[in-house]
Amino acid sequence: xxxxxxxYIDESGDFESPNQSWLIGGLIxxxxxxxxxxxxxxxxxxxxxxxxxxxxxxFHLTEIRRNSGNDKALNIATDLFKTLxxxxxxxxxxxxxxxxxxxxxxxxxxxxxxxxxLIIQAETAVHEFFNSEIxxxxxxxxxxxxxxxxxxxQFNIDQEILQALPKAVESDLVASGQIxxxxxxxxxxxxxxxxxxxxxxxxxxxxxxxxxxxxxxKVLNDLKDDxxxxxxxxxxxxxxxxxxxxxxxxxxxxxLFDSLKLVDRHPKNKDFxxxxxxxxxxxxxxxxxxxxxxxxxxxxxxIWRDKTVYKSYFQKLNxxxxxxxxLEDANTELSVRNFNSFKFKLNNLALxxxxxxxxxxxxxxxxxxxxxxxxxLISDPSNFPMILDFHSREVEIxxxxxxxxxxxxxxxxxxxxxxxYRNIWELISPDMEKSDFLRSSMAIRAKSTLVRCMTLNYSxxxxxxxxxxxxxILPYLSHKSDKSRIFCLRLLILSKEHRLDEAxxxxxxxxxxxxxxxxxDYFFFLFVLNQKLLISEKSDIKELITRVxxxxxxxxxxxxxxxxxxxxxxxxxxxxxxxxxxxRESHDYLKRAQSxxxxxxxxxx
Length: 605
Fold this sequence. Notes:
Blueprint: E1 4-12, E2 23-29, H1 33-50, H2 61-68, H3 70-85, E3 91-97, H4 107-130, E4 136-142, E5 145-146, E6 149-150, H5 154-161, H6 165-170, H7 177-181, E7 185-190, H8 196-209, H9 214-225, E8 229-233, H10 238-248, H11 252-265, H12 270-286, H13 288-305, H14 313-334, H15 339-357, H16 360-378, H17 384-400, H18 404-428, H19 434-438, H20 441-456, H21 463-473, H22 480-496, H23 500-511, H24 519-534, H25 538-553, H26 564-580, H27 583-594
Parallel strand pairs: 1-4, 3-8, 4-7
Antiparallel strand pairs: 1-2, 2-3, 5-6
């Protein structure tokens, strides 16, 4: 296949009357205009003899219906479609219907907009049916005359249709490949009676126009089932159009995300459901095991990072639950390879959301589901990082449950598992030093989590061990989030040891002039500050507030949504401004803290 295609286009309906169908249909054939005509003539002319018609002029479905009746007309149409399907040169039909009867206030303008729509959507049909790219397109359009006056001209086609393609690309309404076609499209305006391809386009338009009749509807359904017909809807949802073109450009992450949004917003819409199931089938059965993993993980990342549609953790959690149901439904038909691995990855993200909203009961339900399949997954070494993430989430569930003793036990088991993992690293890379392992973010996070849980479950006999663990980590800190984690732990430990003055000094030194201060840094600073204010004399309160006021006044909150960390800081800010005597500010921050979406009966809330 050399990338040369011919698209024959005819229409049916007056594009004006609300009680009639408005549609445009065509035949796409994988060859140039001239060669297509020769091949179509060779394939179709025997049918004229078979059905004893006078010639090409008589081979039009409207005339056949009128002269020979509906039954014969349908027999000839079915025979034509079978002939085209078995021909040496592949071809397929495309139609677009203006079901909504959206008008451009001028029938010819409406026709041209629908013509643009069909050309845009035809590339999707070429991709799916021929599995090819269009390098040259012959556009053969049946001329339209009303009262012997030519309507749409070649000039109109160029100005209102072809030159509109770049704008469609900019809006993601058409695949980007069509821009390259602009200089490789030849337009031919022809009389529908004398071009074999336009005669075929006439047949599909006539059958589609009359699809309200069961016999015609069946013919169309058979064509769709055989993938001989691709039917679109003009002025349909622009979101659906974008999804189709994301898919056409193999941008499956955006296509999946956009289709999931539509199903989430309109759960009863069959077209939206069909789109998401089609994409899941493509991703999990046609992109290979690596491709499926990349696209699925990309989709989860897109949901997690989204700050426009799924701002809150409640919203993220709900869409993840819907995605899991869709995947489970699809898996009954597709039997996706390594399905439990995808399911485990999704539930890990759901656990992260549940931890952020403090829903420990639901989190423990998901926890048990994860544990039921973990033995199956552990046999594949590539799943090990995902399983380590799961155990990290498990620790947080028990922190949120305020069961610090259990969280410490789990954190220690998690660290022991990470430490054992080092032995595997050494097998793979014998030259690896222990310092290389301890420098990894995985090791730093696991050791920091253990220190945190030991501190939460604090007793004085743990002080030396906690300090030694921190000393182990300090030489390997490079990322700002790791530095922040250790800083917060130091403040928490000093608070547990009632060394609040030292904690405040450490915090002021760390925050002042530090451009990498993180959200939790401010919270723990406010936490130890308020602990000190609660036990201070009035004269000392004023002096301490004056000392730290510039830092506190510079603390900002997320503007797009209230998150868990914002609630913590708002509580502490409310208490600080109470001590400063600013009742209005104190009340406002307390009110903001209460606006955070947390599960009402959550222990952490």
